[in-house]
Amino acid sequence: xxxxxxxxxxxxxxxxxxxxxxxxxxxxxxxxxxxxxxxxxxxxxxxxxxxxxxxxxxxxxxxxxxxxxxxxxxxxxxxxxxxxxxxxxxxxxxxxxxxxxxxxxxxxxxxxxxxxxxxxxxxxxxxxxxxxxxxxxxxxxxxxxxxxxxxxxxxxxxxxxxxxxxxxxxxxxxxxxxxxxxxxxxxxxxxxxxxxxxxxxxxxxxxxxxxxxxxxxxxxxxxxxxxxxxxxxxxxxxxxxxxxxxxxxxxxx
Length: 253
Ligand code: PGA
What we know:
Elements: E1 5-10, H1 17-32, E2 40-45, H2 48-58, E3 63-67, H3 84-90, E4 94-97, H4 100-105, H5 110-122, E5 126-131, H6 135-139, H7 143-155, E6 167-170, H8 184-202, E7 210-214, H9 219-226, E8 233-236, H10 243-251
Parallel strand pairs: 1-2, 1-8, 2-3, 3-4, 4-5, 5-6, 6-7, 7-8
Helix pairs in contact: 1-2, 5-7, 7-8, 9-10
The structure holds 2-phosphoglycolic acid.
2-phosphoglycolic acid binds near residues 10, 171, 235 and 237.
C-alpha cells in the first residue's frame, strides 16, 4: 500500500510568533501554487507559545500544525508543562515525542514517552515518535538493539488499532544539526529494520506506518533520501526555518 509522504518541520526553540506566522503564510502560499504538493502531507511544529497563532494563520491551508512535546497528564499542578488536550485546543494535529534533544536535555525516557504517547493518542492527535542511536552506539554495533528497545519501550501496551496513525521518525543523533547526514544506504537499512520491528509489534499496520528520516535533511540530499523504499518523509530542523529550503525539500519527491 502506498504511504503518503510526510514532511514535517521541527522549529525547535526558534522564531518569534510573528516570524512563525509569516513563515507559515509563505509556506501555505507556496503549497497552494504547486498542485504537485497535494501528494505530500506537510506540517510545521512551532514552540508552544507560537502554536496557536501559527495554527490560526495556517487555517484552511495544506499545512498542518504540530507540538514538539506533550505532558501525559491533562491538567493539574504541573508547573511549566503543557498537555495534549491543550495542544489540540490550540490547533495542533500532530505531536513530536521522544526527540533526542528531549531525551538528552530534559530527561525523557522510553517509559515517559510511552505515557505521553498514550495521552496524545487519547486526544486523537498524530504522534511523531522519534528514535535514533548516538554515534557511540552505532560504532559499538548497538544500532539494532537501541532502535528495538526505543520502539518496544515507547509502544508498550498500545494496540495496532490505537497506533493506526503512528508516524515514526528515525533520527540518528549524530546527524542532527551537525550537517552530517546518514548515507541513503544507512537510512534505508535503518528504516527497513524499524519497519521489521514494527511488523512484530503491530503486524500488518507496519506497512502503513510512515517512517520519516531526520538529521541534516537539506534541499541537496532530500531527493536521494526520499527515493529510498522505506523512507516515507522527513523531519526537518534547521532547513525548515527557511521557506526556500523547506519548499525545495517538499518538492523533492
Ligand atoms: P536538523 O534537525 O534537520 O537541524 O538536523 C532535525 C531534527 O532534530 O528533527
